[in-house]
Amino acid sequence: MEPAKSQKLKNNLTSAAGLLYNPIYAPKYSTLLAMLVMAVAAPLAAQQLEPAPSFGISANPNCGALEPTEFTCLASGNLVTSFVVPSGVDLYGCTLGGNCHYEYCVAAPATLNSNQTIASGCNWNNSAPTTFNIIVTGSGSYTAYAEYRLVIPPSTFYYSTATGLPITLDAASPSVVLNSPAYLPNQNFTGNAQPLQVNGAANQWITWWATTTESNDAVSMTLYGCPTSGCSTLVDSGLTSPPTFSWLWPGPIAASTSTYLELYGVDYAGGSDDVEDIAYAFTVFDPTTGTAGGVTCGPVGQGDNTQPCLVLADGDPSNPVDNDIPGDPPAGDPQPQAGNNQGILFSGYSDPCIRADTVVSPDNPFGNNLYMTYSYALLNSSCAYQQGGGCTGTFYSQAVEIHLGYSPTGLSTSSPGGQSWCAGAAGDQTQCGTQTILFPSLNIGTTSAPVFTSHEVSNFWEVPNYNNTGYTLWVAVQLTYWIQPPQDIPASIMNTNNPGCLVVNWGEGNSTNPYITPAALAWPSQASSQPSSCTGTNGISGSLGVPLTFSNLNNWVHQSTGTNPACASWGQPAIMLTNQITPSGGTPGDYYIYLAAACLDRFFNVSSYYVLYTDFTASQALTSWNVSAGPFNSGSLTALSGLPSYNGLQYITELEWFIRPAASGETPQVAAIFTPVTQSGQGQPTFENGCLVANFNPVAGQSTATNPVNPFVVGVTNTGIIANIFDMDTPSSGPTEKPGPGSCAYDPMSNTGVVEVRRLVTTPTGCMQGNGGPAACPYNIYTLVDSGVMP
């Protein structure tokens, strides 16, 4: 049995003294014995411990650990991969293998004596151990120790200093949650899940979050494609943080509604978890074979081929039980007000633009939060008549603000991938009750002579690591104009004395705050800080952004193409800032701003579309733009396979774009979403026909009458319609969708699919005309609808 180490020196002294001590000679030799004991004890007391060994350990292979010093197994069989006694050990005159030998110990965990030797827990072995046991219960950080000792029989031991290796016991498996592609929770479908339609011929994002009991652990992910035949097709492995990954459906693409993905995660300790559930099923389509994705949404019980698509945000203020964006209910009251000479003309949410924030931060721990800007319809009130310093009657005038919403992906397993939205500005659920107004509508005039700012049709873009600075940059564009009652919105945009303009502004992080949200794009909320015109003394400048006036846009197109576009105004902008796409003659690696904008005639019909660009790296003044694509319009669509048959196709409008996920080494591909507009006959109202999706080349080149360049064809791999999203609402009574649906948005990291604007019109009576007579007041309700189509 091993003597206690605190008795080591005493044991050695007792053996030495025993050779000399005899009670018969005690009186005679007591002094001599004391001297001998002192002589022997002195050098032994000064004896140094043997040098520490080196050793290595790893988990039991049955644990499947990825990291050698992290374990899930409490059973025996963990490996000692090496145990080396260093050179220079003092053998005290003995011969190894002859009259002395080594003994070895590995203990996990163990306590140490003050002299750094193992106090307890050792089972000494005559040979270096090959396995050891973890004798703890519960996850946590521990230390395994190794020690050897020189044994000189019968009972002399010389111990080494112990060597420690940190180990982690992680007995809990990781938790893996699939954010997208998942499903849309919709009680109108079987299983309360609205299925997704996924383009199997193009790269898609998968986003997830995985947590472990050890906060510093990574989880290695493997993705399997699961067609009807079973979940055995490996898509890719080794997926690591940040938790976004570009994947391509491994095929074959079959018309099945039970297709899904299995996401399998293993942590360092070998613990595993997977997400494999039919609830995440989706349909795969292949537009390269002429089979486009698509859906026609409609109300429940309509009795036709429509689907009851999930309502992201219901813009009807008269509906008390709806899906308003939390913290941002729709403005207005659909009932006419006394003295209101215009009536309540519109409410709700329109012109959405969705972007994923891919920067990992404390508020965005998995790099896939979603942001959405949208036009927010409201009415501003002012005095209808000024008499004797008092106000007689109230005048209500339309205006639009740009608001910001976000979907805190990854914070809750019940709200992944854009299924829930808040009106807050950051990834914090507590901010759901606060509006975030990016571009406000404020009275910059007086009570008797009001002038209201108004903004609409915003579009924005993120650069996660701008110019390799590590700082986030957000850029935005929107239409700004000023309303002076009784002037309405169209007249205000084209006001000869004070016309509107497109405005580009941006916000960039810094060393103090490298990560910013789109809230950094916001204009001040004080009327005194608002501009009163696009240019001039109190024009748009500085942090408010750069105004792109209608006349300058006309001139830039003329200088670039030699043609005169003669646009009465410009609108429907989309913006992109990237160094991954270079225009002809540009500098590779520079950041270019690309602006898609519609050239509008005086009736706000789209004459043509252009894509203009400027080198943002070379100059942030934005005073010089060139055309990189266009002009193009509905005529460009005739070259696309799968184009639906339209009666009287006039033009396209509300063009938006997104960049597809690209596999490593591939050039990113842009796709466009746009609304075809038809007119059944001269004098008939125009009708918006939902949204089409097609691949698009923003640097296709300038088009001329003799050399037409189609950005939907030139430099595009798949020149067909990828998806067709429509909404049909024709109830027997109540609101109808007379103008047609349109104005769509999409981000590949969302679960919403393409988001479409449903525009319903009702005609309450009892409104007052300008002359005081009764009239019908068309009331427009704008609602955001999730299609579930992922192009």
Could you walk me through the main structural features you see in this protein, from its secondary elements to its overall organization?
The protein is mainly β and 791 residues long. The protein contains four helices and 47 strands. The strands form twelve sheets. Strands 23, 24, 25, 26, 27, 42, 43 and 46 form an eight-stranded mixed sheet that branches. Strands 22, 36, 37, 38, 39 and 41 form a six-stranded mixed sheet that branches. Strands 2, 4, 8, 9 and 10 form a five-stranded mixed sheet that branches. Helix 1 runs antiparallel to helix 2 (26-45). The protein is elongated, with a radius of gyration of 37 Å. Mean pLDDT is 80; it is low at 1-46, 334-343, 410-416, 425-431 and 769-774.
CA-atom Rg in angstroms:
37 Å
Structural class: mainly beta
Tell me the β content: 35-45%
Report mean pLDDT, rounded to a whole number.
Answer: 80
Counted by DSSP, the helix tally is 4
How many beta-strand elements?
47
- Major sheet: 8 strands, mixed
State the separation between the terminal residues, measured CA to CA. 74 Å
- The gross shape turns out to be elongated
Contiguous uncertain segments of 5+ residues: 1-46, 334-343, 410-416, 425-431, 769-774
Helix content: under 10%
